[in-house]
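Thanks for the sequence, V.! I ran MBOAT family protein right away. Repeating your input here for the record:
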Amino acid sequence: MVFSTPIFLFYFLTLTLLVYYLVPRRLRNPVLLCASLLFYFWGERVYTVIMLLSTAIDYTHGMLVERCKARGNDRGARMAVASSMVFNLGLLFFFKYWDFLAGSLQAVGLGFMPVLNIHLPIGISFYTFQTMSYTIDVYRGDARAQRSIVNFGTFVTLFPQLIAGPILKYKDLGDQIDQRDCTAEKFASGVQIFMVGMGKKVLLANNVGLLWERYKALPPDQLTVAGAWLGVIAFTFQIYFDFSGYSDMATGLGRMLGFEFAPNFRYPYISRSITEFWRRWHISLSSWFREYLYIPLGGNRCSKPRWMLNLFLVWAATGIWHGASWNYLLWGLYFFALLMLEKLFLLSRLEKAPRVLQHLYTMFLVVVSWAIFAIEDFSQLRAYLAVMFGLGGAPLADGAFGYYLRSYLPVLCAAALASTPLGVSLFQKLGSRTRQILCTLLVLAGLILCTAYLVDGTYNPFLYFRF
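Predicted structure:
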């Protein structure tokens, strides 16, 4: 079930909130667990069993880790953590990477792995990372093992962030699972944040996404240099507003239910280096890899060659986490190379340059990265990049470019403005009473506009659902 659909907004969410606030506090987690399972079952049916199995395995492993630690059996605790990781990574590999690896091997004449045409369960990349980090946190002493299977199941299946994040760590949410405050102020702020996310998704991401789809569908001989750049710039805005919009909706829904989630985006397109960009983009994933892969590998407290290897492994994993295709691995290694250049010598020089130049440098490289990310077919990717950089004799522009630029200029300008904190800064300068009235009007207007778009339109993808 997708957040930006009338059935979610006016049926599922309304009924869930009604029941959630009518039952006693001690029954809210069972209600939330049942609602989350229904939410997932709506889209995945039989694969709900996989998520329940993952929940049961990690719940028992967390208990086992804590019991071994209490008895001074550190080896047993480490084996339990390893067992949990093998199960979770094995589950992720089978459903997400088996067919990719089998197809790649068959392409070079090795057919010992059959292609099974496995359907990828929605959200498996997110909830396996969450459950895997739980046992690690229990082993490290950062969290207590959850005694209640209902409470642990609520953590794993929590529908606001179940299928596209943000990735939550149990140590950050465990106390809220057991006890949380549900206030009118928090609920109201949750509604506001949710509607901001809905506007990002429906009014911005969906509209600029149509422009990208038009250019992506063109054969290379019909592309122009300006058109190729316009298309990938449209995707640059689409993926940001699609994913950050979902994250805002998840955060807003969490607040409506009494939870506080850490922000997943902090205006990444105002960054002045690639290093800064990755401090602002998909923060929950970056922090997960930092805490559970980069630091255990040794981080930067080692020799320079080992440190470079650690970064290489992290960015290879970051790339392939996004999808079972070689372009995602290339995308991750592209950022590895850029970050290496910055950390070794470029960043100190870049900081001396004018801010405008820093920003142009960053956004140029980010936009190129989204071309690599968006096009899975390597031959199409090579052709598209060649046109972007004026290779192969592609014309500079044509009449179609002018038409699309004029047609989409308002939404592109709105997207560019919404990518910065300028609007929020101006809003905060208003008086509190004015802000309150304006918030109410904007929420109502946003709900009406988004509903009208959802009822009338057919293009409503969520890009990160396939990851």
